[in-house]
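Colleagues,

For the teaching module next term, I've prepared a clean inverse folding example: a structure given as tokens, and then the sequence designed for it. I'd like students to try predicting residues themselves before seeing the answer, so please don't circulate the second half yet.
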């Protein structure tokens, strides 16, 4: 059953980082949202800032930055008709792979989950393709085998010509436990509703107040490729 975004986002106090991709309810816009959450001071000390046609993370207070690895990266980059959205520096891996003629899945073959034992946070990624009035997207998760760092499980999901008002949601953690368990199963089917303003408000309001950090939302006109972006930072 397709959940509302509020239901999907509110099912855990700490889904970690998450990607939503789908189609607006009027069928005219390709939609994506990417959010980050944090429990540590270092993770919460971040904001999203524009970077060309994409965004990057940046320390809100540079004096409090403890370890930039895994938390400072470009979550969103654009290459022609492709929009890449990921939860780490594999954004660059996909970008560079596409430039070399590799597919989304092939590009990610060189990467695994994050080396942050004992969580081994999954790398989640999305690729949107808007061209000639058509929109398709793919989503990927690279995760350890139940916390075994010697085994990487790779899953890629492709959605061709998705229906209006429908999308999918993938996030890093299944539940707020210790260690944090990885996302399980296929990306969750969700309802995409409202214009960019109401959609952004819904996503932000549905995230746990204590743990949410930043949100990026983009609506891309499927016919023209023109887009509108909104960014919300807690800091």
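(Answer key — instructors only)
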């Amino acid at each position: 059953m397709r959940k509302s975004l509020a239901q999907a986002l509110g099912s855990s106090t700490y889904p970690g980082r998450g990607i939503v991709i789908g189609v607006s309810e009027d069928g005219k816009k390709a939609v994506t949202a990417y959010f980050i959450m944090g429990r540590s001071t270092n993770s919460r000390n971040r904001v999203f800032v524009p970077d060309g046609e994409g965004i990057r993370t940046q320390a809100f207070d540079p004096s409090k930055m403890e370890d930039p690895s895994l938390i400072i990266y470009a979550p969103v980059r654009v290459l022609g008709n492709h929009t890449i959205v990921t939860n780490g520096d594999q954004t660059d891996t996909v970008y560079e792979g596409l430039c070399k003629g590799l597919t989304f899945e092939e590009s990610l073959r060189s990467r695994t989950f994050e080396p942050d034992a004992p969580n081994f946070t999954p790398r989640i990624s999305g690729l949107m393709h808007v061209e000639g009035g058509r929109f398709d997207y793919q989503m990927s998760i690279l995760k350890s085998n139940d916390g075994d760092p010697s085994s990487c499980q790779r899953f890629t999901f492709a959605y061709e010509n998705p229906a209006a008002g429908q999308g999918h949601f993938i996030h890093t953690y299944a539940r707020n436990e210790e260690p944090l368990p990885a996302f399980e199963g296929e990306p969750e089917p969700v309802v995409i509703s409202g214009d960019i303003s109401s959609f952004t408000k819904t996503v932000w309001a549905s995230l746990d107040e204590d743990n949410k950090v930043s949100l990026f939302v983009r609506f891309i006109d499927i016919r023209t490729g023109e887009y509108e972006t909104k960014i919300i930072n807690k800091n």
